[in-house]
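Let's practice the habit of predicting before peeking. Look at the sequence and jot down your guess about where helices and strands might fall. Then scroll down.
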Amino acid sequence: MNTPSVLPRAACDPAACAYLLRFLSHDGRGQDVTVPCDEAGNVDMNALTEHLRNNYLGARAMVGRDYSCPTVQTAPSCPDHHEPLLLPCAA
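Done guessing? Here is the structure:
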């Protein structure tokens, strides 16, 4: 079962964390990587903890091998939560 990486509270101000960029693990046993982003999927790496930034960069580098193309989703705390909003790798 895939388990999402945990978003530290400091890295996810509720007012600024309406969207999440999510990389799903291909093997089904690995850990998904989820980071806060804007509606277009842009990630403010300066706002991430070192651990989360390393996970994000690793997942981004391994798209197609260990992780799927990321999707932008509304955060679960958002009242109009639905997923996905954007498929950045979609052709």
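How did you do? The CA atoms of residues 4 and 32 lie 5 Å apart.
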